[in-house]
Amino acid sequence: MAVSDSASAGGSTSAGFDLHHHGDREVGPGLVDLAVNVRLPRPPSWLRQELASALDSLAAYPSTEDAVHAVAARHGRPHEEVLVTAGAAEAFTLLASAFRPRRAVVVHPQFTEPEAALRAAGHAVERVILSEEDGFVLDPALVPGDADLVFVGNPTNPTSVLHPAASLRALARPGRLLVVDEAFLDAVPGEAESLASGHVGVVVLRSLTKTWGLAGLRAGYVLAEPAVVARLRAVQVPWSVSTLAGVATVACCRPAAVEEAEKLAVAAEADREYLVSGLAAEGVDVLGDPRGPFVLVRIPGGAALRERLREAGYAVRRGDTFPGLGPDHLRLAVRDRATTDAFLATFREVS
To answer: Structure pTM?
Structure first.
């Protein structure tokens, strides 16, 4: 089952949800960060070296030409189907600016910036809220048939649920633009269920932030049909993608980097299962079937528990800023086993 509701245009807060609240606002000095879903504390040494080597070129205006061709080669798509962006978040703003949907739908719970961007551009937004009881599983029939712009995450933040590619493809239809946010897909072994290879009417968004520790650099890209890419490029601010972001994109699309990302994804999967097992030992069930580098839980008194964890030195992500969730929901980023062990010991003490 699902709940459907509407949100009028304007502002960043709708029906009590702060759509611009993100995990970085939970983090503070001295806190162990389980609130932000960036896997690495810093970019790997080989990537830092490539970025450092580009510093002497910063006097020149940036170009994304090399990055576009690198992304195209990485996904086996023509370069006309690639737009490099200042992080995946820029793509949400570009989509909201370039298109004038009659009926825009955002599938929740999910990352709130798509709805925030639509509302800021003056669009009314309809929400399809997936059911916790059903494990936040996507049923294509829940999306109104006449919706012409649909946003869905895969795997979805904050639920960590990975929707089958067949379910997503079932949402594509003539006259509709389906936007699939795959910001965490490279953290799933084998990039299972990805639509990055290309489908009519489908826009795929990717981020380099999560796997490579690049949140401060803002590097991402769009994969879509040439006509869609052209419309997005037409409203993109000139030089919005920095030289360093372009260098990072090229570096992270090389075969060796893709292979390394796969190894990191396998390690993250094992670390996630370790966290899930540890939470179960504490009587906490993880919601849904998590496949991303984070998990969602619901604990009675979750808001108060979050504050006690904070006082004990751990930042976790509140869930009540996501439509479809409430104050008892908390999102926990997957970390290494030593960090998980220390967190679970603290969790036991403050629960």
So the answer is: 0.94
